[in-house]
Amino acid sequence: MLKDSQVMAVLPAKDIDRAREFYRDKLGLEPSQTIDDQNLIYMCGNGTGFLLYQTDNAGTAKNTQMGWGVADVEKEVEELRGRGVVFEEYDMPGLKTENGIATMEGMGQGAWFLDSEGNILNIASMPM
Hints:
Layout: E1 8-13, H1 16-25, E2 33-35, E3 39-43, E4 49-54, E5 64-69, H2 73-82, E6 91-92, E7 95-98, E8 101-104, E9 108-114, E10 120-124
Parallel strand pairs: 1-4, 5-10
Antiparallel strand pairs: 2-3, 3-4, 6-7, 7-8, 8-9, 9-10
């Protein structure tokens, strides 16, 4: 049923204008569609995308909410840092970062950062 349907992530934003600036200035993304000035649709690789919508619930999740699969995590981290993105450091059972990057056995590398709204985002070399 759904296995052949396209999927789209949905992220909350307390301040949609601030979020639009973050995604443009830090991640180099522009919305492909704007709905009611409070809903932004972004398209990424291979027909994937996400909806950013205005709500007071933004930043309340304690888990990764969206991730990008990339060929070279270290290169992406370096480029994003150059744009002002700050990467999280973790030291917990099963996940330890060094300079913002974790190497996970059998899963490749990953790095996490917060967007302007407190959403936890990820880039990873593991298959997505």
